[in-house]
């Protein structure tokens, strides 16, 4: 398709968009009494209008049933998390038994590392990407300290080549081969939070396992955003947050994947708790742990149902839409945003450098843009004029045109506001 940077063309794209009506199912903040252009769904998704009803249902059951809500609520609390298995399995490409929800993201990654980071002898090193999200970096450092190693020795970062913004697949594979039989774990972000680069999960997983290591993924920026086939790709484990592309609310519950081949391994260590115990015998208060079959056996504590309710509202919306439809629009609207940026670039003296890969196979719903010749003042102008975006030092803005609630006309309007902010300074 030949794009045009006009309002009429953007409106035509919206009129042909089968997901366009979903915008009306979200609540948008307003700036200057006008609905914002929201580009920060990669940090916190907008609130779906249906969310309140799901929370109110739990609140009403609590008021009317109190403790009996565990068993007699419309959605009984004691198995509330089981409602996620089917829709989440489709979002991440898993068997229903391989997924569950619990805790928050870094907590879950720590718990999964109890099972899957088992350094022994000379096999103790962890491979991760350079400039991983800071929480992951802190996790790696504390985990290797816990096992008695020094981070500078045990943590191996895959670096970008000089002058490049993204990590090459061949460099990942070469580093895995180089570390070889010293490698215990590969744990990488499926989508890099800063650049928006999508990693080849299938190929990297196979390479890590061939080297004798376990391979896990932090899918914070991937779940609900990219096509995942965690079961078929033979991923050992993964975890993700729910509040970015899946719109579950700030700091909300995390999803977990554990491949079925690990479900019946009695030698695999884990930290146990009563919510991971045999469901049918959980309330018998038995002294010995008998794990639930599947990923649910990694649960520890009673689930926070009030937190799960908004997440359930969201995954049921995803079930309606389907990942294929989301990804089709994601690719198209991201390409249109890229086109708009290039068109505005021709009309101003500043230079926009998109550091996210141009190859659609290596990117998702994010463009990270270096604003050469501009600074924080332009970001402040965008925010004051109804464009909610994200600033990262030194002068990068991250733009996430989330397909569920961003429109093509939003992309056009953003370009005009951006141009005005540069020309008017």
Automatic annotation (TrEMBL):
Its EC number is 3.7.1.3. Its cofactor is pyridoxal 5'-phosphate. Keywords: Hydrolase, Pyridine nucleotide biosynthesis, Pyridoxal phosphate. Pfam families: KYNU_C (PF22580). One of its GO terms (molecular function) is pyridoxal phosphate binding. The keyword Chaperone does not apply. One of its GO terms (biological process) is anthranilate metabolic process. GO terms for cellular component: cytoplasm. Pyridoxal 5'-phosphate binds at residues 105-106, 133-136, 218, 221, 243, 274, 302. It is an enzyme of class 3 (hydrolase). The modification N6-(pyridoxal phosphate)lysine is found at residue 244. Pathway: Cofactor biosynthesis; NAD(+) biosynthesis; quinolinate from L-kynurenine: step 2/3; Amino-acid degradation; L-kynurenine degradation; L-alanine and anthranilate from L-kynurenine: step 1/1. It catalyses: L-kynurenine + H2O = anthranilate + L-alanine + H(+); 3-hydroxy-L-kynurenine + H2O = 3-hydroxyanthranilate + L-alanine + H(+). Belongs to the kynureninase family. Homodimer. Catalyzes the cleavage of L-kynurenine (L-Kyn) and L-3-hydroxykynurenine (L-3OHKyn) into anthranilic acid (AA) and 3-hydroxyanthranilic acid (3-OHAA), respectively. This is Kynureninase. It comes from Flavobacterium cutihirudinis. The lineage of its organism: Bacteria, Pseudomonadati, Bacteroidota, Flavobacteriia, Flavobacteriales.
